[in-house]
UniProtKB/TrEMBL annotation:
Name of the protein in question: YceI family protein
Domain Lipid/polyisoprenoid-binding YceI-like, first and last residues per copy: 43-181
SUPFAM superfamilies in alphabetical order: YceI-like (SSF101874)
Pfam families tied to this protein: YceI
Gene3D superfamilies: Lipid/polyisoprenoid-binding, YceI-like (2.40.128.110)
Domain of life per record: Bacteria
Length: 188
């Protein structure tokens, strides 16, 4: 019995030593350094544009899992301050639903050691206005010298996220909104 205890102590020591010296490698994730989310509503009578740089995100290169959030109140642009106010209060209900989120997994395998452009599909839950929808979003993923850039444009139907437009303004707000995202991520 004493011999068994002596044999397991070196193994435990090696495991602890391994974990002590490798957590940084195991825990390295790509985090958003900077980026932008913008949207365009191309309606019959009016075009509305807004954007924000307040995006946070994380990508695990080991599992290909990701999570991104955007502060809804941070969008700026619009055609007037009143339009921005209506966006937050009447349509997005930003007090109740302050964040838009997208989390899931990149479907394709990416060799993160290779500097190149990857055309990938991100599959996950898009949560806007408290309504989650499973989406597959095509994304350009560019790896270069330990950094990553993402670029994507996709459509978001308002009805998918329970956002209703009163009939009086239906010609001024599109039923599908074009969303674009770009960002730079670095290992941390």
């Amino acid at each position: 019995m004493e011999q068994t205890v002596l044999l397991t102590k070196p193994r435990v020591f090696l495991i602890v030593l391994f974990l002590f010296f490798t957590p940084k490698v195991l825990a390295q994730k790509y985090r958003f350094e900077r980026g932008e989310v913008s949207f365009v509503s191309n309606a019959e009578l009016e075009q509305i544009k807004a954007k924000t740089g307040q995006i946070q995100g994380l990508l695990d290169p080991v599992t290909n899992q990701f999570a991104f959030t955007v502060d809804i109140r941070s969008f700026k642009g619009f055609n007037s301050e009143l339009q921005r106010e209506h966006f937050n209060e009447k349509y997005m209900e930003s007090e109740r639903y302050p964040k838009a989120k997208f989390s899931g997994k990149i479907i394709e395998t990416i060799d993160f050691s290779e500097n190149k452009i990857h055309e990938v599909r991100a599959k996950g839950e898009l949560d806007i206005h408290g309504q989650k929808q499973t989406r597959i979003i095509k994304t350009k993923f560019i790896l270069e010298n330990g950094k990553a850039r993402i670029e994507s444009t996709f459509l978001v139907p308002l009805s998918d996220h329970n956002i209703t437009i009163p009939s009086i303004v239906k010609q001024k707000i599109a039923s599908e909104i074009e969303v674009s995202i770009w960002g730079t991520l670095s290992l941390q």
